[in-house]
Design brief:
The complex is a heterodimer. Chain A is mainly alpha-helical. In chain A, the strands form three sheets. Chain A has a three-stranded antiparallel β-sheet. In chain A, strands 6-7-8 form a three-stranded antiparallel β-sheet. A two-stranded antiparallel ribbon of chain A has the order 4-5. In chain A, helix 5 runs antiparallel to helix 6. In chain B, the strands form two sheets. Chain B has a five-stranded mixed β-sheet. A two-stranded parallel ribbon of chain B has the order 6-7. The longest helix of chain B has 13 residues. Classes of the chains: A mainly alpha, B alpha/beta. The interface between A and B is large, with 59 and 50 residues.
Chain lengths: ~425, ~200
Amino acid sequence: MQRNNADPSALLTPPPPPRREVVEARPLDEGTIVVNVGPHHPSTHGVLRLIVELDGERVVACTPDIGYLHTGIEKTFEEKTYVKGTTLAPRMSYLSPIHNSTCYVLAIERLLQVEVPERATVTRVLLLELDRLASHLVFLGIHGLDLGASSIMLYTFREREKILDLMEMVAGARMFPSYIRPGGLAYDLPQGFEAAVEDILRTIEPSIDQYEDLLTHNPLWKERTVGVATISSDEAIRLGVTGTILRAAGVALDLRKARPYCGYESYDFDVPIRTEGDAYARYIVRIAEMRESVKIVRQALDRLPAGPYICADRKIAPPPKHELATSMEAVIHHFKLWTEGFAPPAGEAYATVEAPRGELGMYVVSDGTARPWRVHMRSPSFVNLQALEGMVKGGLVADLVTAVASLDPVLGEVDR
Amino acid sequence: MSDSTSNSPSPRTTDPAFETLNELAGAIGDGVMAVDVLLGEPTAVLGREHLKTAAHWLRDQAGFQFLRSVTCVDYLTADPRFHVVYHLASIPESILAGDSDPTAGTFRSIRVKVPVPADSPVVDSVTDIYPTADWHEREVWDLFGIEFAGHPDLRRILLPDDFEGHPLRKDAPIRYETVQFTFNYDAIAAAKPRARE
């Protein structure tokens, strides 16, 4: 609108009404624009910065910039004894702490060549699957929140709260239980544990039905997720993508079946897959996986045996507290274990577990001393995030949010 | 523990992945310096000039189409000082086709270690064979200072661009640092705790 300020009478005349016309979307004359999404953006699930090149609404390029949460955790491991590392490992991926602990402990146990009692193994499986449930519940809630289906978050966090309460009951901490220890568990399960798990099992399945009622056939939900952020199985394998993203693309790779640990081969469960490889397929796979987890928890609870919760080797497992009052031997073991720690023989082990986000691997190198020489964590989110650019290229900028949410990255795990 | 591990130096020749490594040794000759099963994981030590040949062979001939991780270990006093470690896996046809039954096909995994001397820390990049190596190699470059020849975009990935040094090397300062009431950077550097020898 042009106004001649020099002419005072022009100021008194009312401005002409705005012309109403629909502006056609067109490519920018000057080419593309570059937009920073994050590092502080609610839909980046943490501190992920995406440098997005846009041509109008279309994404031309998307370069993730990571490292904002880098804590040097692998270096810190080298200065801790092996047992102290068990409190460090869960901090990497704060949504699946039990998986991190278990993976780290499995690597140490392979170095030590130690047998784990049955009660500890079954408890691990039980907690691993509850952990997977809790993690998928967060995925579902946040995914809904990102796409504007805010109410789903309130429901999923209701169930997650129960699982966290159970973790608190078992280990004394909600987020970082550090309950899995080399040789077994930190201490025995508390009284009333079975009843608490049964209470969760009673409510979780109707709750999953409730989420599905809200989302699975919801046209708005499908509009935002079907055919969005697709990846083919070949591309996923080339990029090293694992977990639900790979299974939603039709590859039935689940390390619980392919490379069993903690006795998973003796549990009866299915590996849900879809072939579409889009965000909706990932959602369906995760929902189905939650139901499978419930199945495994139920089986583990049924077979939970009595017996020791940690191996009898006093060089690895601390002596029970009551022995310290009566046995000099126990005092010496206790003192040596908490001052020096144990020293696995020199060697290297790569242990993997099927974490909620994919293959979690821990490569532990021992030089024969009480501290690891090197701990490397192959975190699934780090590798999966590489697939983001291919998923969003050529799509709409609004689908970027769907893509990030369906990848379900944990930035603590990406940056370590 | 479900998978049986062996501590003995004699490798389990029944492991199908171990057979693959022996075949690899036959295919590329003396590039393979050692083959062993370390705590259940078939492992080959490979000369760095043979890395790309071996990677091509493993992917195309042996079916190891999946690169799980790339990392590095700094042995500080050893020669060669660094080992770049690759974990590879072969996903069987049945799993690729969507059948998770473990009896239908075996998931095999191997480890390949490439010694790298400290005076020329350079390894060929395998990004053209395994695209997933892109970020892994950037991370190893960032934290260990191993250069990957032929990598399309070898930048720091976790640390800021202006960071000096490579912190996961054993001679990088470790632990907490005491507060220094000085701007003399030589004195600060001298007071920093170093890795154990």
